[in-house]
Fold this protein.
Amino acid sequence: MGPAPALVAQLRAAKAEHRLDAAVLAEMPKVREDLGYPPLVTPTSQIVGSQAALNVMTGKRYSVVPTETTNYVMGLYGRPPGPIRDEVRRKILGNKEPITCRPADLLAPGLEEARREIGSLATSEEDVLSYALFPDLAREFLRSRQGG
């Protein structure tokens, strides 16, 4: 599985597990630079932190990459403030090219389909929008409202 279990075991034996935290904190600015300086707010702060932890725990930078990091590098969170390092992008995406448009422009329109699906349970545009955003909850609510 790589050096992570051995490293953690060594740190535990030496009662120095806290050094793992220090290593992750030291890795975070490197990951942030690699990824084009994403803002450290949710969700990109978690993406940077998780990737830094994986880099430290595996002992190999970007050998394990969560879906969220891949989606960020692909451009699904929008354009980063700075450039993503080419070698990091290639390691994460391989031959895939990141998107360069507004990510929402890739979504198919769904309001008319939602309107058809919810049918007569919806009595307003708000009902249709509620269903489009939260289909299961909205359907349950609209059914209970219709039943009195």
